[in-house]
Amino acid sequence: MQRKLRHYLLENSYKWVTAFVLILFLTACTSTPPTFSTLPNDSTFPREQALGIFASAYETVSKKALNFLRVEDIAISNLQGLSELDGSLSLQDEGNILTLRKDGKNLQSFIKPEASKVEEWAETTLEIALFARETSDSIAGKEPEEIYNSMLSNMMSSLDDFSRYADPSKAQNNRAKRHGYGGVGIIVAKETPNHRVSQTFPNGPAFNAGIHVGDLIKQVDDTPTHDLNPHDVAKLIRGPIGSKVSLKIQRNQNQQLLNFDISRKKVIRPTVMVTNNSGIVTIKISSFNKETARVLSKSIKKAVAYSTPPPKGFILDLRNNPGGLLKQSVNISDLFIAGGRLVGATGRHPLANKSYRANNIDLTKGLPLVVIVDGKSASASEIVAATLQDRGRAVVIGTTSYGKGTVQTVSRLPNGGELTLTWSRLQLPSGYFFHKLGVYPALCTSGQNIQAQDLIEKSITNGDNFASTITEWRSVGLKDLDQRKKLRGKCPAEQRMGSMEVNIATKLIEDSILYESLLSLDHHGQALLR
Asked: Which pTM does this prediction carry?
């Protein structure tokens, strides 16, 4: 009996095996099987550079980003940027396998490294990018930097609104704005077909050489400028500190050109403009670079010591100020406050956590201070306004500000590009976070176009409403975005460019009782009696 059973199994096993193979074959025919990759032999692509860029980017984001992300998630977001270059490409994530697809059909499959392995994910990223470049005509024709830009921009924009990638050219410009550059100290504007000098920096090389606002730049060294854009003209004018540049200038429509041979110096764009009108010192700050606080400190000391008549008070105009360096905003707040807490920053990385305190000197000697903000006042400018408001040092007027309450750190990549990465949130002296909320003014000018006195009286009369709003403003939850949006609607963010706010600020400084009335609202919820 057993012998017959063995004979039966042997005789039929060949049929079962044949049937099983046939089933596998038929199943395979119904879908495209994954084909595992072997690295394309593309000698034109700078592999070592690409590996360094991807590894550096993954290391930076995984360790420093405000919110924790796995290296795997960062890398996949980076790879999805390939679709920006070729919309027919897509990446399918299937457990331990990534499959590159074109027009919905599988091209190649790749085994995923461990979720936290930086170097391995950099290698996998390069492998997939090279296959995409080999397969796609759109990507094959792109320079490596164009591929990096698409991938890294997609990766950074997926994090939040303020994280971004800058290619080497943009990164160089960013560094120049923050820290200065070798140049002659002018701003160039396009006026077809010419390039006009729209601003000369005081005591800069061009100013000292005699170049005027309105002059037309016809040639830089041996290069005519008529076919260039202002950015290209500015690049020609910039160069190593101490080197010389030759400018051919046309002035007042005269046909004869003026020649200027100028030595380049380190140029840092001016951000502070100070005027004194009958003792009212108005300080306009356009942005925050590495020189802003130093220049402002010097200007305040000069105004206090030498102005005639002596200052009655200060107006700090931060409208249309997009911000800049965090430390500069701290240093500027410190100029007006004698001791105590200023602002704090909290993040995941140990170096992202900061707490700043003021020195014991108020350079303005406690004189009245009015800060003007609008819907374009962001980041560092909001820190200054909110800190001075929280500490009871200034009356803030204008509209609700932009609401950017996060800090970015800048990391340089091997190709000279930069990652600007959100890594901490800002917390004000009273304890609240102003991200997606902004700074709420004691006197709101949104949609207003009435006399200064009338608007001041109206704000004092509505003191109880302001006190109630500012209390809620400082207590609303960080994640309660609906309520934050609702609160912002009480004084809608607007761009304000006229003289109305300066007139109101002047009126407040000239009338100490009005000033103290608005200053007291933050703390008592009602105005002082006249």
From this structure: 0.83
**Which region holds residue 221: left if phi is over 0, alpha if psi is between -120 and 50, else beta?**
left
Asked if the bond preceding 193 is cis, omega within 30° of 0, the reply is: yes
Taking the C-alpha atoms of residue 271 and residue 9, their distance in angstroms, rounded to an integer, is 91
DSSP 311: P
Residue 370 CB contacts under 8 Å (≥ 6 apart), including other chains = 313, 314, 315, 316, 394, 395, 396, 397, 504, 505, 508, 509, 515
Angle between helices 118-135 and 71-79 (to 10 degrees): 10
Mode of pairing for the β-strands spanning 265-267 and 418-427:
unpaired
SS3 44: coil
Among 110, 79, 83, CA closest to 94: 110
Structural contact between residues 401 and 374, judged by C-beta atoms closer than 8 angstroms: yes
Q: What is the pLDDT of residue 44?
A: 75
What is the structure's pLDDT at 462?
Answer: 81
The whole-number pLDDT of residue 10 equals 40
From residue 418, alpha-carbon distances to 19, 163, 479 in Å are: 59, 11, 29
Q: Which of 323, 401, 426 is nearest to 66 (CA)?
A: 426
In the structure encoding, which two tokens stand for residue 433, read together? 């976070």
Mean pLDDT, consecutive 10-residue segments, the chain of 530 residues?
39 39 34 44 80 97 96 97 95 93 93 96 96 92 94 96 94 86 91 86 94 95 91 91 95 89 93 95 96 96 91 97 95 97 96 95 97 97 97 96 96 96 95 96 89 83 86 94 96 94 95 92 47
- State the residue for tokens 């007139």: 503
In whole angstroms, how far apart are CA 130 and each of 42, 58, 127, 155, 287?
8, 18, 5, 18, 42
CA distance 289 to 182: 16
Nearest to 290 by CA among 273, 303, 272: 272
What are the backbone dihedrals phi and psi of residue 458, each rounded to the nearest 5 degrees, phi first?
-60, -40
Q: How many residues does the chain have?
A: 530
How far is the CA of 523 from the CAs of 230, 312, 463, 519, 520, in angstroms?
50, 24, 11, 8, 5
Q: What DSSP string describes 475-499?
A: TS-TT-HHHHHHHHTTS------SS
Nearest to 444 by CA among 402, 391, 501: 501
CA neighbor of 496 nearest in space, from 389, 372, 396, 370: 372
Pair type for strands 369-373 and 313-317 = parallel
Q: What is the pLDDT of residue 43?
A: 63
pLDDT value, residue 41: 54
Exposure string over 220-251, b if 16+ CB within 10 A, otherwise e: beeeebeebebeebbbbbbbeeeeebebbbbe
Q: What angle do CA 517, 521, 527 make, to 5 degrees?
A: 40
Closest CA relative to residue 488, chosen from 415, 416, 439, 418: 439
CA-based end-to-end distance of the chain: 118
